[in-house]
Structure formats: structure tokens, C-alpha cells
């Protein structure tokens, strides 16, 4: 997706009312508080099964920001943005954080690899990797993306671009369908 197409998509999301959004420094406590504040709302609307899936994905994406964001506060905690949107028929969880060029290359490779598998093939691969825990890459692009993809049951969308300060940015979008 081109940067222009991404910006159009981001403008669409900006018009949606998020169930949850946060921009700033991510700590484990902040992640837990965010989940506690929004979980009940999603559970009430769409049930416990959907709420658990949404927040399993949310927590994994937030922890990616916490641990793998290139820009960190003085305590070494990552900074970034995350939002959960409820759009007709699905939830979209979107995160954004700075990355270095090495991590960008790892992420591009991992996203391409994960996108090449059909659902059945992916489930088999994911179960093997998560069972053996042998692909835990440092700097991101490891088990977290596999777990996110497994929960969403849809391909992940990753975008890379430079912001005005010439920092490399990574946006991850995950969609989770729900039925009523």
C-alpha cells in the first residue's frame, strides 16, 4: 500500500469512534489499565469470546510497542500509539511506533512469510512454532506476530514510512471479524 493510500485509510479511521485509543509511553501497568477500562464494554456488546480475542491481540501489539519501539523514555519504555475500532462487522486494532531499519527488514520478511500461508497451513505452522518456541527473534518480528495472526484469523497489514522528523514508522493493522 502506498503512503497516500495509507493516509486515506488513516483519515477514514480518524472519523470512526474508537472503543479505545492511547498515545504515549507504554508500561505494563498502562496496558493492564487500558484493558480493564475497555474490556467490559466489548464484552457487553459482543460477548466474552470476542472480547478475549480483541484484547489478546491488543495486549500483544501494546507489548510490541513497550519492548520494541525504537524511541523509548529514559526508563527504557517504548512510546507509540494504539487504537481499537469497532466497525460494521469487525474490530480493527491499529498500532504505530518507531523502528530502526534492521527491525523494518525483519518485520517485512516476517509479514511476507506469514502472508504466504493459507489458514490451515498457518495453523499448523503456528502450533509448531509456538510449541517449540524456537523462532523468538530479538528486536521484534517473532512469536508476537505469529500469535496475533493466529488470533485474528486474517492476514496482518503492515505499513512502513518516514514521519516528518525522518524517523521510520511501523503501523500494524489487525482485523477481527465477529458475527451477530
Indicate the topology.
Elements: H1 3-15, E1 18-25, H2 28-46, H3 48-68, E2 79-87, E3 90-99, H4 101-115, H5 119-132, H6 143-152, E4 157-162, E5 168-177
Antiparallel strand pairs: 1-2, 2-3, 3-5, 4-5
Helix pairs in contact: 2-3, 3-6, 5-6
Describe the structure.
With 180 residues, this protein is of the alpha+beta class. It has one domain (3-177): Heat Shock Protein 90 (2-Layer Sandwich). The chain has 6 helices and 5 strands, in the order H-E-H-H-E-E-H-H-H-E-E. It has a 5-stranded antiparallel sheet, with helices on both faces. A hairpin with a 2-residue loop joins strand 2 and strand 3. The longest helix is centred in the N-terminal third of the chain and has 21 residues, at 48-68. The model is unreliable at 135-140 (pLDDT under 50).
How would you concisely characterize the structure shown here?
This protein has 180 residues and is of the alpha+beta class. It has a single domain (3-177), classed as 2-Layer Sandwich (Heat Shock Protein 90), CATH 3.30.565.
Shape: globular
Q: What's the count of strands?
A: 5
Structural class category = alpha+beta
What is the share of helical residues? 40-55%
Q: Give the number of domains.
A: 1
CATH superfamily, please?
Histidine kinase-like ATPase, C-terminal domain
* Major sheet attributes: 5 strands, antiparallel
Query: Helical stretch count?
Result: 6
Write down the CATH topology.
Answer: Heat Shock Protein 90
Query: In percent, how much strand structure appears in the residues?
Result: 15-25%
User: What value does the Rg take, in angstroms?
Assistant: 16 Å
- The top-level CATH class is Alpha Beta
Taking all residues together, what is the mean pLDDT?
83
- The rounded distance between the terminal residues' Cα atoms is 31 Å
Poorly predicted parts: 135-140
CATH architecture: 2-Layer Sandwich
Multimeric status of the protein:
single chain
How do the SSEs run, as a string of H and E? HEHHEEHHHEE
Spatial arrangement of strands, main beta sheet: 1-2-3-5-4
Amino acid at each position: 500500500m502506498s503512503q497516500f493510500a495509507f493516509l486515506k485509510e488513516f483519515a477514514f479511521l480518524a472519523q470512526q469512534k474508537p472503543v479505545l485509543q492511547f498515545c504515549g509511553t507504554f508500561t505494563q501497568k498502562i496496558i493492564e489499565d487500558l484493558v480493564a477500562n475497555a474490556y467490559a464494554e466489548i464484552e457487553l456488546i459482543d460477548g466474552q469470546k470476542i472480547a478475549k480475542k480483541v484484547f489478546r491481540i491488543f495486549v500483544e501489539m501494546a507489548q510490541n510497542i513497550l519492548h520494541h519501539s525504537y524511541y523509548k523514555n529514559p526508563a527504557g519504555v517504548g512510546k507509540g500509539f494504539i487504537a481499537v475500532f469497532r466497525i460494521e462487522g469487525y474490530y480493527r486494532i491499529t498500532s504505530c511506533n518507531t523502528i530502526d531499519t534492521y527491525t523494518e527488514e525483519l518485520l517485512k520478511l516476517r509479514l511476507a512469510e506469514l502472508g504466504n500461508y493459507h489458514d490451515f497451513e498457518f495453523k499448523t505452522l503456528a502450533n509448531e512454532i509456538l510449541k517449540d518456541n524456537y523462532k523468538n527473534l530479538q528486536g521484534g518480528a517473532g512469536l508476537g506476530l505469529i500469535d496475533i495472526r493466529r488470533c485474528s484469523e486474517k492476514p496482518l497489514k503492515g505499513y512502513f514510512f518516514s514521519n516528518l522528523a525522518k524517523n521510520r514508522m511501523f503501523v500494524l493493522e489487525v482485523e477481527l471479524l465477529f458475527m451477530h
